[in-house]
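User: Structure please.
Assistant: Input sequence and predicted structure:
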Amino acid sequence: MVTILLLIVVLALLFDFINGFHDTANAIATSISTRALSPRVAVFMAAILNFVGAVYSSEVAKTVGGKVADPSHIPHGMEIVIAALLSAIIWNLITWYYGIPSSSSHTLIGSLAGAVIAGAGTKALNWGGFKEIVIILVLSPIVAFATGFIIMWIIRQIIVLSGNTSRTKLNRSFKVFQIFSAGLLSFSHGGNDAQKAMGIIVFALVSLGHQTTLDVPLWVKICAATAMGLGTSIGGMRIIKTMSKKLLKIEPINGFASDLNSSIVIQASTAMGMPLSTTHVISSSIIGTGSVMRFHDVKWATVTRMVMTWVITIPISMVLAFLIYKIIFMFSS
């Protein structure tokens, strides 16, 4: 039993590590693109602030650990968690390899749901909680696009009213602002994303009878935060290229607006204890702010490809986790 739990913890931390370098681009792509920060400094800053954000709270972890299914009343909990983590890791690596900024959140939630259905049937899945999480995952990029558009429009109006329309001076000033907005976004990312792995570990601990509540032990927080920080330190240049170049040409003004808007949306979701996709939020913020500046320069073909990946991630993850569970159960029985 201890060996199985150790395997689950290792897989969860591996997922968090991959999530770190898979989603590093989220927090630092705009600041690297505009050269507000060098890649090395940006990745180092993101790694530290991701760690701090990950230790800060645990409400999202409780949601992941208890809203999809009740771990204390579910059979084959060990196999379910292992199947969910393997599925999430595989899909994350596939999308990272092809440089597609997909959602680790969609992947993990879809994988957990698919594994629960495979191991305990559809009745074991908390459809109300699952639907609530999916609604937040679907609505968050729409909200991020809309609020990003509004924030960029307000900034643009302030600039026009101030009479300071020199693009060179504006970009120089907003490069400084970007350093702070990228730091805030890194902190926000850690506070939401790292908690998903914490939630899975707590799910396993409750399922195996090691604890009865969904409270996150300190050792789980530190391990998950460390894994996220280490993964972030490696970086993810494949996805950074997509985020910083293939959506549209980012300038310091809309780079700052994108980071600020994304931080607000992510922090609001974290305060509600709801996981969301930082990838989707930041991508949508970039598109929203960019639409104000240069609508026709947005590379809508890349946007379409990203949206298609977002749409298929949950069902693919569910099917993949379902199949992996069946394979595991076949060899373990």
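The mean pLDDT is 84.
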